[in-house]
Amino acid sequence: MTVKLDDEAVEALRVDVPSLQACYQCGDCTAVCPWAARVPGFSPRRVMRALQVGSGYLEAELWRCTACAACTVACPRGLNPPSVIAAARRRALLAQNLPAGVQRALESMADRGNPFGTGASSRGRWAEGLGVLDHGQFPVLLFAGCTASFDPRAHGALRTLARALQVSKTKFGLLGRRETCCGNEALAMGEVGLFEELARENIRAIEESGATTVVAASPHCYNALKNEYPRLGLAGVEVLHYTEMLARLLSEHKLATPGKIARRVAYHDPCYLGRVNRVFDAPRAVLEGAGAKLIELESNRDGAVCCGGGGGGAFREVPLSERLSVARVKEAADAGAEVLATACPVCVQMFEDALAVTGLQGTLEVRDTSELVSRAMGVTVRH
Amino acid sequence: MCVKVVPDPSEITFDPQTKTVNRRNARNILNAADLNALEWALKVKALTGATVWTFSMGPPFAAQNLADTIAMGADDAFLVSDRALAESDTLPTSLALAKAIEKAGGADLVLCGDETSDSATGQVPASLAEHLNYAQLTFVRDFALEPEKRALRATRELEGGQAVVESELPCVVSVLSGSNRPRYTLFATRQGARRSFKPKVWGIADLGLARELVGAAGSPTRVSAVTAAPSAKRESLRIKGPPREAARKLVEALEARGAFEGVR
Q1: Is B8 on the interface with A (CB under 8 A)?
Q2: Which residues contact A303 (CB under 8 A, 6 or more apart)?
Q3: Which residues of chain B are within 8 Å of residue A96 when distances are taken between CB atoms?
Q4: How confident is the model at residue B241 (pLDDT cuts 50, 70, 90)?
Q5: How many inter-chain contacts (A to B, CB under 8 Å) are there?
Q6: Most distant CA pair in chain B: distance in Å?
Q7: How far apart are CA B232 and CA B258, in angstroms?
Q8: Cβ B240–A362 below 8 Å, yes or no?
Q9: How far is residue A205 from each of residues A135, A175, A209, A379, B135, measured CA to CA in Å?
C-alpha cells in the first residue's frame, strides 16, 4: 500500500528529525542496505526522499528496516536513517499503517512489559534455583532483557552467564519482576511515549538496586541503557555488555577457561553491539581466550549483515527468500565454521530458525558466546 | 457500547488447595472481545457520524480502562459503580447496564463483546436486550447498517454454519472475539486520556435500582462448587531436521498422543 504523508505529517517529521533535510540523495545507504540487496525495489534513499518531500512511500518499505545501521555507518552526511524511519513509523502508527505483529508486540509491551504476550510475573523464572539475589541492593546488576527471559532457548545462555558471574565472585543481582522491557525496539518502531515510560520504570528499579554497574545480556538493552536512558535520568552507572564484563573478568584473572573450545568458530557481530556501539573486540577476545579458532566472515565488523531481528523485525513474518538470517548461516557454513557464535539472544533466535529452514542443523551449531565460554570454564548448568 | 474490565488472562492461576482463582498478579485490562466491539462502534461512527458512548459496571479503578476507550475514539464513558453491586451475576449486571443506557437517553445500537474472558457466560448481551426491550443479534461476525431502513444486516456464527439476518434498530449486537482488528492507540494518547478523562459514575440510587434487585440478593446464580479442570501433562520434545520432515514427525508425535481424536 502506498502511503502519502499530508503536509502536517511532513512538518511534524521535520521537527522530529531536523537532519532529514541534510540528505543529498547520494544513495550510499541503499548501496549497503542488506534489504535493498534482497528485495527488488527497496531503497532507503527513496524512503528518505519520500519523507523529505512528502511524496508517497510504500508502507512495507517503512516496516522492512531492521535498524541495523549499515546505512548510518555509510552516510557521508552523518545521518541516521533508522531514526528518520522511526519518526516516520510514529506517523504510520497514528495512521494505523502497521503490521499486525508489530501491533501485538507494542500492545504487549504496554500491558505486560514484554513484547511476547507473556505474563510479567514469569519474567524471573529463568533464574530459579541459581540462588541469585533478585531484591534488595547489589553493586552489579545483570539486566536479562525480554528475549533472554522469555525464550526457553535463551535460558541456557543466561543461566551460564549468571554462573560465570558467581564463579568470578562478582556480587551481583537481578531486578526480577521489577525489570521491564528496555523499550529499545519500541523506540525503533516509533513508539516514543511507550519507550519513555518503560525506561522510567527501569531507571527507578535500577536506582533502587543501588547498582553502579549494569551488565546487559542483550545488545538491544545495552544500547537503550547506554545511549538512551541517560537523557531520561540514568546517571552514575557504568553500562557494559556481558562480553565486555567477561573480557574484564578474564583479564583480571577472576575467571579461567582451562577447557578449550578447540572448534572453528565464526563470530557474528550483532548490529547494536558492533556497528552501533563499536564493541567488536571484547567478544572476539573472550572467544579466543577460551580457545576458539576464530574465523572472520567476509562481512564482519562494520560490514556484518544483520540477522533480521532488530527494529521490530523479529515481530514480523518475512518470506523465506528475504530472510537475512538464512544468508548469514549459509555464509558461516560456507566459510567452514563448525559454530556460528554471536552475543545476542535475538540473533540466536533468528539463526536457530535459519538452521531449521536451511537444513544446516548437524553441520553448523548456533551459540551465544556465554554458552561457549562457560563450557570452557567447566561450568555446567541444568536447564 | 458495553465493556468489562477483566484480569489479564495470561496472569491468572488456580490454587488447587484453596480452590480459588488467583488474580493477585493480574493487571486489569479491557476484555478482548469488547475491544472488537469498540472497533465496530468506531467504524460505525466513521461511516455515519454516530456518537459512541462506553458503559461499564465495575469497581472505581475501571475508570482508567474507560479512559482507554476514549483514547481509542469513544466520545464519552459511564461507569456504574456501587458497593451494593458486588457479587452480582449476569442478571443484575445487565439490569444495571440497561438502566444506565436508558438514563443516558438510550441508543440506536448497543455493541458488546460476545463473552468475557473471566466468566464466559455470554449472557449479558441477550439479557441487556431483554431489559431494554431492544432486538438482539448475538455471535455476530460481520454486520452493515442500513440507515435509510433503520435496520442492520448481520452475519451470525452458528454451530456448523452461518446465518445472515436482518434486524430493526434499536438492537443489541454481540460481536465475536477476533471479528476485526482493534485500532492501535499510541501510548502517549492513552496516558493523556488516563490523566485527563473522568467518566460519569452512577450508583444504584442514581439508576433507581432497589438494593434487593442487585448484588448477591438479586442474583439467582449460586456457585455450589469450584473444581480445577485437569490440565494436560506437559511434555517437551525436541524435533530436528528440515521443516517438511520435522512437521511430519510433529504430526506423528501428536497423533500418537491422541491429539487428533474426534477431529475430522
Answers
A1: yes
A2: A32, A70
A3: 183-184
A4: confident
A5: 56
A6: 68
A7: 12
A8: yes
A9: 10, 7, 6, 30, 53
Count CA atoms within 13 Å of residue A311 on its CB side.
23
Q: Is A11 on the interface with B (CB under 8 A)?
A: no
At how many degrees (to 10) do helices A7-16 and A81-94 cross? Answer: 140
Nearest CA in chain B to A193: B188
Q: Do B171 and B137 meet the contact criterion of CB atoms below 8 Å apart? A: yes
Lowest mean pLDDT among A14-23, A79-88, A235-244, B127-136: A14-23
Residue A194 to residue B187, Cβ atoms within 8 A: yes
Walk me through the domains of chain B, giving residue ranges and CATH numbers.
5-213 (3.40.50.620), 229-264 (no CATH)
Q: Cβ of A319: how many Cβ atoms within 10 Å?
A: 8
Which pLDDT score is estimated for A17? 83
Instruction: Give the start-to-end residue ranges of the domains of chain A.
Output: 7-94, 101-250, 255-377
Our measurement of the distance from residue B59's CA atom to the centroid of its chain's CA atoms, rounded to an integer in Å, reads: 16
Of A213, A205, A271, A217, whose CA–CA distance to A239 is shortest? A213
What are the DSSP E strand ranges found in A323-362? 339-342
| Residue A370 predicted with pLDDT over 80 | yes
| Helix/strand/coil (H/E/C) assignment for every residue in B203-255 | CCCCCCCCHHHCCCCCCCCCCCCCCCCCCCCCCCCCCCCCHHHHHHHHHHHHH
Q: Can you tell me whether residue B111 is helix, strand or coil?
A: strand
Domain A101-250 bears CATH identifier 3.40.50.1860: yes
- pLDDT value for A14: 79
SS3 of residue B154 by DSSP: strand
* B29 in contact with chain A, both atoms CB, cutoff 8 A: yes
Cis peptide before A34 (omega within 30 of 0): no
Report which of A59, A2, A4, A70 is spatially closest to residue A36, judged by C-alpha positions: A70
Confidence category of residue B264, pLDDT binned at 50, 70, 90: low
What is the DSSP secondary-structure string of B94-107?
HHHHHHHHHHTT--
Segment A43-77, tens digit of pLDDT: 999 989 988 888 777 677 889 999 999 999 999 99
Q: What local confidence, expressed as pLDDT, does residue B55 receive?
A: 98
CATH of A255-377, one of 3.30.230, 3.40.630, 1.20.58, 3.40.50: 3.40.50
Of B25, B29, B189, the CB nearest to A121: B25
Percent residues over pLDDT 90 in chain B: 76
Selected residue of B8, B14, B35, B184 to mutate for chain A interface (largest A Cβ count, 10 A): B184
The reported pLDDT for the residue numbered A380 is 67
Which of A57, A61, A49, A55 has its CA nearest to residue A21? Answer: A49
Decide if B92 contacts B216 (C-beta within 8 A).
no
Query: Is A255-377 in the same CATH topology as A101-250?
Result: yes
Tens of pLDDT, residue by residue over B69-110, are 999 999 999 999 999 999 999 999 999 999 999 999 999 999
Report the candidate in B73, B149, B157 with the shortest Cα–Cα distance to residue B108.
B149
Q: What ipTM was reported for this prediction? A: 0.90
Determine contact: A95 vs chain B, CB below 8 A: no
